[in-house]
């Protein structure tokens, strides 16, 4: 059916007014999600910064200040340690407002990258990395909560996947730009993303669910009108939100709160554990060094860029499939393929260790294993675990629950990044990846036994089901 064009002035709670012409039903949600996705884009740029920046410091720009191997490892992992402390604060901050939190976290995040541009020692860079990781955790948690609350059930999975897509674009841009820019110039480029997010967030409304939770019903209706379109009938959605909030205003004892959080926290943290210890951190933070050990003549840097491109394409496909195939089928397929790819990569590394370079031109085997793993990881457990973090928790518990799951995720990520070298020294490269394969098999069992399907369900319906 062709939608009739119209021109309408729409107000939002921040006092801005916009002329919306011919606005389709989903356009407002997509525009808001695109604005919010600048936060995960900044996070992806930061994630991809360490590899080219460390190479720049150790090679092209070594006259500025020297960085040894241990300092480089801390520079790569301190952002994850900062994120571990940032996630709990993010859970508290979103109670202050999802949109407001994103704006006030974005400005200092941009400042951190400007500090990196003018760093005069590795200690200053490490400090900036820690603080930026702290702020990135707040931004990512707030962005995920915001998108899950503004999206209708039919496109919630796709819009949530948009945040992961933006992060993968950030990693790819950082890898590609790092080939031409030194570490200072690259940090300057990254500082633009959080600043752009702050500007874009001024133009979109606050989460209607949060506004209803705070009793600001007229503002919630205006926000929903901006997001759903002028022709949308908002009465049912508003009544559902109000009824849900009223039901939750009954005083809850601490024991009842812990009981209601127990199951979603267990599922969310379980998914985060298997995501972080699946070997993804080894490929994300050590991909060049891993390829150097297994490749014969292929350029490991070119292979790393190829992996980033495949990761981006897979995330685009994930955004299309998550609301069609459902969460559980993608999680199961992801775990199976990841286990196969990790076991195969470990077996090849074992063969190379026992029979070094006996057969030439086998570089395509480890590259294929990494690409299969990347596709499986990016299609399934990576985006869906973050989506389920916001779907499983009730509205009034979403900030606390998401904070617990996010903090646990970053703790696992920090441990995973720091222990990969230890696993490699203890078990060999092949043993480390066989261990990751075993963990992925355990993750498959966890998904089948514990994770519910949430496809097509409204967040209030999921809360009632829980």
In short:
The chain is 76% helix and 2% strand.
Give me some keywords for this one:
single chain, 19 helices, 76% helix, 2 strands, disordered N terminus, 466 residues, mainly alpha, globular, two-stranded antiparallel ribbon
SSE order and pairing:
Layout lengths: L6 E5 L5 E5 L5 H10 L1 H21 L10 H25 L4 H20 L4 H29 L5 H23 L4 H8 L1 H10 L6 H6 L3 H12 L6 H13 L6 H23 L3 H15 L5 H22 L5 H28 L9 H16 L1 H12 L5 H53 L8 H7 L1
Helix pairs in contact: 1-5, 1-6, 2-5, 2-6, 2-7, 2-8, 3-5, 3-18, 4-5, 4-7, 4-8, 5-6, 5-18, 6-14, 6-17, 12-17, 12-18, 13-14, 13-16, 13-18, 14-16, 15-16, 15-18, 16-17
Write a structural description.
This protein has 466 residues and is mainly α. 76% of the residues lie in helices and 2% in strands. The chain is built from 19 helices and 2 strands. It has helices spanning 27-36, 38-58, 69-93, 98-117, 122-150, 156-178, 183-190, 192-201, 208-213, 217-228, 235-247, 254-276, 280-294, 300-321, 327-354, 364-379, 381-392, 398-450, 459-465, and strands at 7-11, 17-21. The chain has a two-stranded antiparallel sheet with strand order 1-2. The two termini are 37 Å apart.
Structural class: mainly alpha
Number of helices: 19
CA(first)-CA(last) distance: 37 Å
Q: Are there runs of 5+ residues with pLDDT below 50, and where?
A: 1-23
In round numbers, the mean pLDDT is 80
Large-scale geometry: globular
Taking the sheet with the most strands, its summary is: 2 strands, antiparallel
Rg for CA atoms: 23 Å
| Beta fraction | under 5%
Strand order of the biggest β-sheet: 1-2
Number of strands: 2
Secondary-structure element order, as H and E? EEHHHHHHHHHHHHHHHHHHH
What is the percent of helical residues?
over 70%
């Amino acid at each position: 059916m062709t939608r009739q064009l119209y021109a309408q002035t729409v107000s939002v709670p921040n006092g801005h007014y916009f002329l919306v012409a011919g606005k389709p039903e989903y356009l407002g949600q997509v525009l808001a999600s695109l604005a919010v996705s600048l936060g995960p884009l900044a996070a992806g740029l930061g994630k991809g910064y360490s590899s080219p920046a460390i190479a720049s410091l150790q090679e092209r720009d070594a006259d500025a200040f020297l960085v040894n191997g241990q300092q480089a490892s801390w520079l790569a992992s301190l952002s994850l340690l900062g994120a571990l402390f940032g996630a709990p604060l993010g859970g508290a901050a979103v109670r202050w407002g999802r949109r407001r939190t994103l704006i006030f976290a974005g400005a200092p995040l941009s400042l951190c990258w400007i500090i990196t541009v003018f760093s005069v020692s590795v200690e200053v860079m490490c400090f900036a990395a820690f603080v930026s990781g702290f702020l990135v955790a707040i931004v990512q948690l707030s962005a995920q909560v915001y998108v899950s609350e503004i999206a209708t059930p039919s496109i919630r999975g796709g819009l949530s996947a948009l945040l992961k897509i933006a992060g993968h674009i950030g990693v790819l841009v950082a890898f590609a730009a790092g080939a031409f820019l030194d570490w200072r110039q690259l940090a300057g480029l990254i500082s633009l993303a959080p600043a752009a997010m702050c500007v874009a967030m001024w133009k979109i409304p606050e989460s209607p669910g949060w506004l209803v939770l705070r009793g600001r019903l007229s503002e919630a209706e205006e926000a929903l009108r901006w997001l759903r379109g002028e022709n949308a009938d908002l009465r049912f959605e508003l009544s559902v939100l109000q009824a849900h909030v009223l039901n939750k205003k009954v005083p809850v004892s601490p024991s009842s709160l812990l009981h209601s959080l127990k199951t979603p926290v267990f599922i969310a943290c379980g998914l985060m554990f298997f995501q972080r210890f699946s070997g993804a951190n080894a490929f994300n933070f050590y991909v060049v060094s891993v390829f150097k050990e297994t490749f014969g003549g292929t350029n490991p840097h070119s292979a790393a860029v190829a992996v980033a491109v495949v990761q981006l394409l897979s995330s685009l496909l994930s955004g299309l499939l998550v609301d069609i195939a459902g969460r559980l089928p993608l999680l199961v397929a992801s775990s199976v393929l990841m286990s196969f790819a990790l076991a195969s990569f470990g077996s090849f590394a074992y063969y190379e260790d026992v029979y070094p370079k006996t057969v030439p031109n086998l570089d395509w085997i480890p590259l294929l294993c990494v690409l299969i793993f990347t596709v499986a990881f990016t299609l399934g457990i990576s985006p869906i675990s973050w989506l389920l973090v916001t779907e499983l928790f009730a509205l009034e518990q979403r900030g606390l629950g998401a904070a617990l799951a996010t903090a646990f995720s970053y703790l696992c990520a920090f441990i995973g990044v720091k222990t990969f070298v230890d696993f490699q020294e203890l078990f060999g490269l092949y043993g480390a990846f066989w261990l990751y394969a075993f963990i992925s098999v355990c993750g498959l069992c966890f998904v089948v036994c514990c994770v519910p399907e949430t496809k097509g369900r409204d967040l209030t319906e999921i809360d009632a089901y829980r």
